[in-house]
Design a protein that fits this description.
This protein is an alpha+beta fold and about 400 residues long. It has helices spanning about 25-50, 55-65, 80-95, 95-115, 120-130, 250-280, 295-325, 330-350, 365-375, 380-395; strands spanning about 135-140, 155-160, 165-175, 180-185, 195-205, 210-215, 225-235, 285, 290. The protein contains ten helices and nine strands. The longest helix has about 35 residues, at about 250-280. It is globular, with a radius of gyration of 21 Å. The protein binds 3-thiaglutaryl-CoA (TGC) and flavin-adenine dinucleotide (FAD).
């Protein structure tokens, strides 16, 4: 099967946002962009139809410094600011949402909590090896009956004479079957006691831990999604992340990952828009390029408008994150709006491509299918609506 690789991507920058990025931010973005062109785009279609994550790219991501890129150099990370980090997520997701998911989970959901809530020993043990890609991590919060509402989780951690005993099941866990280490959230108190939820660093080779690949997916096919089963998993006392003291801690991790997704959605949309534009110019129907027809121009105008709006949101959010003024609710707005935008752009791009748009040789339908997962994970679109609704009205409607 031959996969189309378009000419070198020049970016979509209708408002000249480039001028607002620092030289370092542009350099980081262009490095990752080139890597995605050279190493990801030629293989991702095949990986997708074969339903595999291209694991040989993991050490390369480590070498590029994209794993936990906004965490300190002291732990083997790149120590970049959050705008550069966001641009990395954008470029990875221009390749595939599965690739960005891998990096989001590794960096924002595994490395970040170990950095923010772990002991110094846990940081030293895991962060450099997760940054290099030598080790892979996953994040277990969601359960079969507790998706949008993790407060009710029934995975338990009970204190023993010399450590902890964990029991429970986690669902839909990205990187789950590949992981060397799982950050697992468990209830140490009464079920429903949000202050009793604490985080554990669980090596996946420990007795009683197993992972099972989630079968039957029609989205994010180039991504490992698994169920984790913890059956009388005995852990030493120092497996607990000492600075965790409630549901707030996993939710803080989600803020980090949602921030990256707000940028990632732009990358997926850029890929679809660029593909639609090129196709529209080259596809001749009724004696002229379809891009010369008014209906397709409306489509393209909508796409570039939505992408530009999303870029402005992400850019300002990034600067606020670096200033320390960003709120979780502002991240909810960006995740919700930018992923919704990407879903619409991908769908319209696929439609513009006609029958070819359903083929794996083109990227739009792959992105369209992936984005349905992105719309659902890290807080569904509805949950972010309710977070915003609560913020503006003061009334919780969950
Ligand atoms: P609530 O009472 O609102 O909050 C409890 C405490 O947490 C604080 N908080 C946050 N802090 C930081 N960031 C956030 N996003 C926060 N949201 C809440 C809050 O201030 C409070 O603090 P304190 O000091 O008073 O204790 O808790 P709630 O139970 O009412 O939760 C509300 C709700 C629905 C917003 C929350 O449960 C939620 O966000 N649900 C969505 C679940 C979700 O997003 N799961 C994602 C799982 S991981 C995943 O999908 C990975 S995808 C992988 C990939 O990227 O590839
Ligand atoms: P539910 O919570 O059952 O929601 C079902 C529907 O009801 C949705 O439309 C939702 O918006 C709506 N709904 C829920 N509550 C309300 C309400 N109060 N009012 C109105 N409507 C409501 N989780 C992890 O912990 N780690 C991971 O690595 C991870 N990776 C994932 C990868 C993929 C590919 C996917 C699809 C999911 C992943 N998740 C992960 C899980 C993800 O976070 C959950 O799927 C998500 O939080 C939604 O939970 P749910 O699927 O149980 O849906």
């Amino acid at each position: 099967m031959g996969f189309q690789v378009a000419a070198k991507f020049q970016g979509i920058d209708f408002y000249n946002l480039d001028a607002l990025f620092s030289e370092e931010e542009r350099m980081v973005r262009d490095t990752v962009r080139d890597w995605v062109e050279d190493r990801v785009l030629p293989v991702i279609g095949q990986a997708y139809v074969e339903r595999t994550f291209p694991t040989d790219l993991i050490p390369e991501m480590g070498e590029l410094g994209v794993l936990g890129a906004n965490l300190p150099e002291k732990y083997g990370c790149a120590g970049l600011n959050n705008v550069a980090y966001g641009l990395i997520m954008q470029e990875l997701e221009r390749g595939d949402s599965g690739l960005r998911s891998f990096a989001s989970v590794q960096g924002a959901l595994v490395m970040y909590p170990i950095y923010a809530f772990g002991s110094e020993e846990q940081r030293q043990q895991w962060l450099p090896r997760l940054a290099s890609g030598e080790k892979i991590g996953c994040f277990g919060l969601t359960e079969p009956d507790f998706g949008s509402n993790p407060a009710g989780m029934i995975t338990t951690a009970r204190k023993t004479s010399d450590g902890w005993l964990l029991n429970g099941t986690k669902m839909w866990i990205t990187n789950g079957s590949m992981a060397d280490v799982a950050v697992v959230w468990a209830q140490t108190g009464e079920i429903g006691d949000t202050k009793g939820i604490r985080g554990f660093v669980v090596p996946t080779d420990v007795a009683g831990f197993s992972a099972r690949d989630q079968k039957g997916k029609l989205s994010l096919l180039a991504s490992d999604t698994s169920e984790l089963v913890l059956e009388d998993v005995e852990l030493p006392a120092d497996a607990l992340m000492p600075e965790t003291s409630g549901l707030k801690n996993p939710l803080m991790c989600l803020t980090q990952a949602r921030y990256g997704i707000a940028w990632g959605g732009i990358g997926a949309a850029m890929a679809c828009y660029a593909e639609a534009l090129e196709y529209g110019i080259n596809r001749i129907m009724f004696d002229g390029p379809i891009a010369g027809k008014q209906i397709q121009q409306v489509r393209l105008a909508e796409m570039v408008t939505k992408i530009t709006q999303a870029q402005l949101v992400a850019y300002h959010l990034g600067r606020m994150k670096d200033d320390g003024t960003m709120t979780p609710q502002q991240v909810s707005l960006a995740k919700r709006a930018n992923v919704d935008m990407a879903c619409e752009v991908a769908r319209e791009a696929r439609r513009l491509l006609g029958a070819n748009g359903i083929l794996i040789e083109y990227a739009s339908m792959r992105h369209m299918a992936n984005l349905e997962s992105v719309y659902t994970y890290e807080g569904t679109h509805d949950i972010h609506s309710l977070i915003l609704g609560q913020t503006v009205t003061g009334i919780a409607a969950f």
